[in-house]
Amino acid sequence: MLPELIHHSEKLYYFFEIASERSLQATGRKLGISAPSLSHSIKILEVAVGAPLFYRKKSGVTLTEAGEKLLIFCRKYFREMEEVQRLLTQPNQRLKTKIRVGTFQTIALYFWPLLIEKLKQDSSISLSIMTNRSRAILECLMKREIDIALTVEAIRHEKLLKHELYKDEYAFYCSAKWKQPKMEKSELLNHAILYIPDAIDETGKSLRQYLQSWDLVFRDEFELDSLEVIGEFVKKEYGIGILPTKVASSHGSALKQLKIEGMSEAKFGTHRFFLSYRDDLEIPQKLMKTFLDAARKAVIQLNSGS
After folding, report:
1. Considering only Cβ atoms within 10 Å of each terminal Cβ, which end of the chain, N or C, has fewer?
2. Which structural domain range is residue 138 located in?
3. Are 146 and 277 in contact (CB under 8 A)?
4. pLDDT value at position 168?
5. Residues 73 and 89 grouped into a single domain
6. What gap in Å lies between CA 293 and CA 276, rounded to an integer?
7. Are 179 and 217 contained in the same domain?
8. Mean pLDDT of all residues in the chain?
């Protein structure tokens, strides 16, 4: 006997979009359907399921426990539909499992090419990538908008599985054109600092907090969101940059580490690079192991500098 849900496939799509937008009004505008019509469709779907799917509030909607379970099903269902459509339109192509990866821009630039190289032998995997700040990527992971996150640090969550891939440290860098490798604290007033203020280390301490704890004062403060921009600005002598050592080394001899007098440690802010995914990930375990092994091999190559 066929399940009742089979008669409501269109309503499943409405449910999926509402769960993503967290708003009937926003979903209605996106789909060109009135909010009352969407609400009516969801009520019919709730009767078919036998449980409420959303908590309705003035600020929008949130998923009930039943809604969370149905959303997991919908993500898997629509993904498989996508693969079937690809098979039908491209019959000579092997069926692949699409893995959606989210990562920080810097990791994408320096790590992603190595990962692709390690994974290209496995024709059963198809990849998609999105880049954003690590915090935003982890939020997408918890919302199941991506499957795997490659981020600096990770959040604590009972449903999150984390694998530490490597560690790095921050340091001050200046253009190689600068003649002095050391600088007094008082001299910093003549220069700008270029950094990502809310970048954190493994203890949760931010770069802004480090500067405040050392009483370092600069002429200007450039609060950026890209390590690549920081590196390029430092090379052009716009100021002093705070960069992870691996990022700085990618610029070769164009950058050099700057020693600030009075500071006991030249490097600081140990931070970790994690591969994270939810414990209810729908990707077969064998493919997940393949991806993780490829990531670890890519780290070895990254650390060797080859």
Report:
1. N
2. 84-161+274-304
3. no
4. 94
5. no
6. 14
7. yes
8. 88
